[in-house]
Amino acid sequence: MPKLPGLIKGLGVTMGTLVRTVKDGANTVQYPHAKESPPVRARGVIALREDNCTACMLCARSCPDWCIYIEAHKQLAPPRRAGGKPRQVNHLDRFDIDYALCMYCGICVEVCPFDALFWSPEYEYSEPRIADLLHDKTKLGEWMETVPEAPALEVGAEKKK
Amino acid sequence: MIAQLAVEIPYWGQSLLRVVGGLVAVLLPAGTIVYLFLFKMMSFMQSRLGPMEAGPFGSMQLFAEVGKWLQKEDIVPENADARIYKIAPIIVLVSTFLLVVVIPFGPDAWFTNFSAGVFYALAIGSVSVIGILVAGWSSANKYSLLGGLRAAGQLIAYELPMVLAVVGVVIQAGSMNLQDIVMAQNTGEIFGWSGIGFPFVLTQFVGFLIFMIAVQAELTQAPFDMPIAESELVSGYMTEYSGFRFLMFFIGEFATAGVFALIASVLFLGGWGIPFSWFGWETIDQVDNWMNIAGPLIMFTKMMVLTGIIMWVRFSYPRFREDQLQRFAWKVLIPLSLANIAVTAIVKVVV
Amino acid sequence: MTMLSERQQLSYIASQAADARLNVELETEGMTLNIGPQHPATHGTLRIIARLDGEQVIWAEPSAGYMHRGYEKLTEVRTFPQVTSLINRIDWLGSFANEVPFILAAEKLMEIEAPPRAQHIRTILFELSRIANVGLFLGDLGVQMGAITPVFLAFRDREYVLNLIEGATGGRFHPNFDRIGGLKDDLPQGWIDETRQVMKKLRGFCDEIEDLLFGNEIFQSRTRGIGVIPADVARQYGLSGANLRASGVDWDLRRDQSLPMAWDKVDFKVWTHPDGDSWARCWVRLQEVRESTKIVDQLLDTMPAGPVMAKVPRIIKVPEGEAWVSTENPLGEMGYYVVSKGDLGPFRVKIRSASFNNISITPWVLKGVYVPDIITILASLYFILGDIDR
After folding, report:
1. At C4, is the secondary structure helix, strand, or coil?
2. pLDDT band at B3 (very low <50, low <70, confident <90, very high)
3. A44 contact partners, CB below 8 Å, separation of at least 6
4. What is the pLDDT of residues C180-221, one digit of tens each?
5. What interhelical angle do B127-138 and B82-100 show, nearest 10?
6. Per-residue H/E/C for chain A
7. Taking Cα atoms as reference points, which of B116, B114, B117, B110 lies closest to residue B1?
8. What are phi and psi of C203, to 5 degrees?
9. SS3 label, residue B255
10. What is the residue-wise DSSP string for C15-54?
């Protein structure tokens, strides 16, 4: 078979794509009507489980662009057992993440020693005003509902302790 | 022309009809081409859907775009030659309107019936070069200037093969009147068989190819889009334009694509006609009046096929370099079209 | 000698002066064309100052730095884990590949080595980011030359690769997945099968691009013999990666140096081209994408089991010392010279990014070409602006 000239072949590729698009639909997603579901691990937004947070400030200190703001005060909590001494705990007054600054590196989630921060793949929280991107602890707490279970690991992976 | 219709239309009515007809003949193809090919065909070739929100399947997108452009500020650069800068897009658009004037859409549906219609069309077709050159020069922008110069060089280089390609058709039809060329194609017969008439694309296939390539260059569509060359010259001669002046260039570009496709269909594909033998017509006077309605539709279909090919090529190919383009015009297309003329003339004389 | 009347003399002088004026007028002045910093073809804010004679370039110079973000300085005030999240923004299309040499340098200083499974996954993600990066280049090439369709096909198929990277690391563009001593996490279930399918799709994409663009006679006439860089000039200007290989130099850091990565466990061909023109550079990259898909396939087949993290202290302090590690990134040789004073963060980091050296050849290679060829040559040299300015 003689070699087809490249010019004709090129026309064939575009026509082929056209036919495929008409037949099987486009590769794009019509965003507001249809949504792609991001992978489980996707770093969309950080969720906070307030009860676990001890205001240890590890996340705020390890953040590369310092977008986490934590304020807390010490207070006495009722004792664990009846008759025990009241405990001194850090009560979280403020836990803000400024998503206008955040670069979604995930270091805060990783360093948190008490499992208070989680990644959620939710991504629809853009705001018309940049100041509204500062999420306070109630808003961060609401994201907890969207946090998925950690996915199962691939064959050959070491079991988590 | 109107006399043969059943109703008598007064002169002002005829004028009005002509104006409306001209607007429709320029804007309707432009709109359809933009929507069907630029929005939809290109998107599908790139595995996406294109505009989908404005109207059903995005069909109102064009009106939204026009509305957007009309709202935009009409910016004139400080150093620009303001008056000429403002005139340039009008020249381009008007040349398109002047071009549509000669095209016959039916046995009586024409605007003017020049006896040297081909000559007129080719002459007016190059008026837009002045508009583009003026736009490039007056913008006071280096990219625009380079774009305008490229456009001038390119359009002049490709005007020639276009003219020469048409000469073959003129020789074969024996007339420069576009209406006569249509007649010649539809009354002709191939070795006594008149089933499909005798469209000149069969004998003038080389001329047809040359003509289409030249049209592609004349319209500055890829692979000949150096005057615009968005990756090199930002937007060439249109760089500084905004708002409705850009819209004029835009309409001009696609309307001219439609008009040149109409001319090509007249010259090579039989124009508005259907083979006359189907209905037993022999001369133009015998053609029924309903062809004045059907003719434009047939023309429109042929135009869509041709612009479809133009756009398909545009979406698939990378562009030439300026010197390669000139070399292609002068060393390949012009000798080829001259040879085509020679062969056509010899055959014409012999037969 | 004939006597000239005063009138004749004056007219003679006047004609001489007119001639001189005409000569001055005819000597055309060059035009300085500023390509960029905002220009559709420079994909970023690279500025090229070109003096033109007509459409021919007589002198050209790149002017970088419009997007300088000061990464070398930023690293000095950040800890090692924080640096990783910064440096994957250098070459933003192949970001995982940016992390690897830095982590390897830090590991070299700490004298630890990632476990074999981590090395394997690192290499796979490295090659995936190469495919994502160079795959987009193949499409972008079309846009630079006026063909609009290839770039959409490239975006379409790059999406599959980005989805893979996101599935494994959580970030499409900025994975931040590499840690000193291994990786952040293991792969999620089903990832390997998905990757195999995507690799098949990408080989199809390469064929498609080859038909649509590389086989096109117009494309060939635009690239063949344009912007020829001979091998010795390429070496003198410090070119690396595909640009160097296209000049016929058989040089590939993946094969030529031994790093704790999995490249020595697979066999792959290092593609070279003798011509050194734009066509060669594009063609070598196309072959590299194909080769990368094969490397990924082989690595998936030989994935070892085990942990993905070596034993490292929770708070990482890198011992005092200096280390230089460079790898074969999608754009060329990328290396980090890390100086540590035993602190939480590096004392000084010198980043050698490929694009900065690759565009240094532009004044040499752009001399005498036409304006449209500036674009094709720049496109074929392939730089990422973040990689130039850092």
Report:
1. coil
2. very low
3. A38, A119, A120, A121, A122, A123
4. 888 888 888 888 888 888 988 888 888 888 888 887 888 888
5. 160
6. CCCCCHHHHHHHHHHHHHHHHHHHCCCCCCCCCCCCCCCCCCCCEEEECHHHCCCCCHHHHHCCCCCEEEEEEEEEECCCCCCCCCEEEEEEEEEEEECCCCCCCCHHHHHCCCCCEEEECCCCCCCCCHHHHEECHHHHHHHHHHCCCCCCECCCECCCC
7. B110
8. -65, -35
9. helix
10. HHHHHHHHHHHHSPPPEEEEE-SS-GGGSSS-EEEEEEET
**Domains along chain A?**
45-146 (3.30.70.3270)
How far is the alpha carbon of A86 from chain C, nearest alpha carbon, in Å? 32
Q: Does C385 contact B at CB distance below 8 Å?
A: no
For B312, name the nearest residue in chain C, comparing CA atoms only.
C149
**Confidence category of residue C27, pLDDT binned at 50, 70, 90:** low
The answer to whether the Cβ–Cβ distance between A9 and C192 falls below 8 Å is no
Please give the tally of structural domains in chain B: 1
How much of chain B exceeds pLDDT 90, in percent? 0
Dist CA A5 CA A9 (whole Å): 7
- Length of chain B, in residues: 351
Domain around B48:
3-350
Q: What is the largest CA-CA distance in chain C?
A: 108
- Identify whether the C-beta of residue C165 lies closer than 8 Å to the C-beta of residue C129: yes
The answer to whether B297 contacts chain A (CB < 8 Å) is: no
Q: Which residue has the tokens 């696609």?
A: B254
Whether chain C has a CB inside 8 Å of the CB on B42: the answer is yes
If DSSP codes are grouped into helix, strand and coil, which group holds residue B262? helix
Among candidates B45, B234, B317 on the partner chain, residue whose Cβ is nearest the Cβ of C39 = B234
Six-digit token pair at C233?
């000039």
Q: Quick one: pLDDT band at residue A1, thresholds 50, 70, 90? A: very low
The whole-angstrom separation of Cα C268 and Cα C291 is 7
- What is the residue type of B253? E
Residue with tokens 């080769």: C291
For residues C370 and B232, what is the distance between their CA atoms, to the nearest angstrom? 11
Q: What is the pLDDT of residue C178?
A: 85
Is pLDDT at A16 greater than 50 in this prediction?
yes
